[in-house]
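Record type: ASSEMBLY
Status: queued
Input:
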Amino acid sequence: MIWSIAWKNVWRKKTRSIVVIISIALGIWGTIFTYAFMIGWVNQRVYAVLNSEVSHMQIHHPKYKENNDMQYTIPNGNKIINDLGSISGVKTYSKRVEIGAMANVSSKSTGVIINGIDVENEKQVTEIYKNIIDSAGTYFDSKKSNLIIIGDKLAKELKLTRYTITPELISSLRNKKLPESLTTKLDSLIGINYRVEAKFETALQETLGEELATQYFYLIKNKAISYKIRSKIILTFQNANGELSGAAFRLAGVFKTSNSMFDGMNVFVRNSDLQAISGFSDQQFHEIAIMVTNTDSLNLIQQEIQAKYPELQVETWREIQPEMALSSDYMNISYYFFLVIILFALSFGIINTMLMVVLERIKEIGMLMAIGMNKMKVFLMIMFETVYLAMVGGFVGMIFSALTVWRTGQSGIDLTAFVGEGMEAMGYSAYVFPEISIDYYFGTGIMIILTALIAAIYPARKALKLNPADAIRSDA
Amino acid sequence: MKVIEVKNLHKTYDEGEVKVEAVRGIDLTFEQGEFAAIVGPSGSGKTTFLNMLGGLDTPTKGEIDIDGVKVHNMKGSALIDFRMKNIGFVFQAYNLIPVLSAKENVEFIMRLQKMTKIERDTRAEELLKAVGLGDRMNSRPSKLSGGQQQRVAVARALASKPKFILADEPTANLDSKSTETLLDIMEKLNKEENITFIFSTHDARVVKKARRIITVEDGKIISDERKS
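Status: finished
Output:
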């Protein structure tokens, strides 16, 4: 009975209740969506760390990581490789030779890390092969020797790119419904090749005007870029004997991950090609990358491998990239911290509304007490009203959050025009796919009910303090 | 049969340095089936007296005995429970629950008494028919006139089968036609069902209908007349 009267009371002043419901809904929507965005952002970074950069676990010589000194190869590496297959929970693994080198093209040179890999094994632990840019070569599909895969950032640095406006590009911009004034002006640039991004940007600014060029530069640039596949890149480095060595490699493909720093530093070559020039044998390598079947058992597997090879350094991705692990863990804690702040602010709105409710109904509450409604029932009635109000607001907020997260999680949020390169320089993708687990919705629901219960105490106590005789004769 | 016995009833309000004696030694007895009006000027103490009779206020001194129960000693939930089971209230401003229909308002007190749904339905319908609102059972208070709302309040007061009904200025907000209808209904219930009504009023029409008129002034009874 009390709960049904309380529900009817919520709708007694519809406008006021709807205002409170909307404010709660907006607060909840804002909190959930903001966090879904951040969780999606961090999870994408974690995914990239696991699947492009670090893998779940790595094994090194304990001194290797002090200075990346290439003499510290993993002792008895091939035996370990053979043993890994028999460890329960280990899914895939790949060995790598890592050598610091200079990459030279005719006009430019820069420092890189050569990753000598077994192509098929590497595909099992990293997804670099999936990140080869369309029309930018392949991932060692050719059987030819001395092929090299480099990142988009390095390709730009070595000027192995060109920017060209083509009729197809203009047509695709028209399909995206970009302003006709822009596509018309671009016609004058058709067929001109620009080797350097800065010069292409200047040409766009002169043709389109500063405002249009700034607004659409990132979009046009990504469509205009092409890579000089099959270009020759000379790698020079110190070999295993401490002598200067080098060889020419042909550019086979260009990859792009969400981490432009990784793309600018890492090149991939076949281990067999590297052995021929580096002086390292098939038995010598610096790193074993491991993926596991179930990440929940990552620490157990790490302990098992470490116990088996106490002389080696066995680290999970959390130890290799502690700042990333911290970001991931921090998300859970900070969500509830942020939610508490939002709900704390909203609770004042709820208290104010419920206080008005009580003050407006003094005569009615007095009558209810006079005819025999005890204090507990009056208290519960106010409590129920508050909880209903908050629950409706919370439910609406969560439904809208779920819809928004689902929709943007499908399509992604494109931040390339705003902070694209800056984010990629920090390793974060400029396309964010918001996501949030259902646990957060349950947690949020419980927090809303708790907030309502706490917010209801003061108005409900106010109602309890009423004297029925005085209340009945009041003006309210 | 004696329903209410009041002995040497006092009520003093302590308002800082000033003490206001609202009721000063009232002795009264009400029999079953009385139709009594307590009259007196504003501030005479009649509402304070009525509140104490109804257990809404506690006396400073004196005794109130309702059907053998010493009400003046009761407190908290025992007093609330006693009010619910023994006393019906009709207020000046009707005081119906606006979100409930007429029938639900009448049923409300029966729900508090945990009556079954069949009992509640039957009694609420009977009572609303008795006050002439058989066709307005599902109307909310906002759709009823003042007179109709007060008749719902009377039906609600009767719902718990109380020992008596206290009506504080029940006609103060009503026009003459509604007043006449309401008084006729209450008089009929009094005569046919032997229900005790005690009014506090200024209204000459109520005084005219009442069979006992108790006049209060300065917190004391100055006359207690019974019509033949």
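Annotation: Residues 14-53 of chain A form the longest helix (40 residues).
Annotation: Chain A has a mean pLDDT of 89.
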